[in-house]
Design goal:
It contains 2 helices and 2 strands. With 107 residues, the protein is mainly alpha-helical. The chain has a two-stranded antiparallel sheet.
């Protein structure tokens, strides 16, 4: 706590500057898209007024049921197996090159 040697009972903007609103200035999708906005500000002159709660809206996405993407039959299973094996090998190569870069940067 601190005391300001002023006798005015009026609101003093220099002591209570505008502050950030409790509402986001952009959506998560905008932020992930690279947008950058300054936070919106609100004056404290009339006192704090909490914002009304917004209803949560989940994004509409196709819901996958367990087992929808399971390959059927031996040829499909073999194809999926070889695709995954190739992906694992590619990821191992990426990991090895990343580890080399890390060693070079830390040396």
């Amino acid at each position: 706590s601190f005391k300001v040697p002023r006798k005015s009972t009026m609101f003093q903007e220099d002591i209570f500057p505008p502050t950030k609103k409790m509402e986001p200035c952009m959506s998560a999708a905008e932020w992930l898209g690279g947008a950058n906005k300054a936070p919106e500000k609100v004056s404290l002159k009339d006192g704090y007024k909490p914002p009304a709660r917004a209803a949560f809206e989940a994004p509409k996405q196709a819901v996958k049921k367990p087992g929808d993407d399971v390959p059927k039959g031996e040829p499909a299973l073999l194809k999926a197996f070889h695709e995954q094996k190739a992906e694992i090998e590619e990821l191992k190569k990426k990991l090895a090159s990343a580890e080399i870069k890390i060693r070079q940067l830390s040396a």
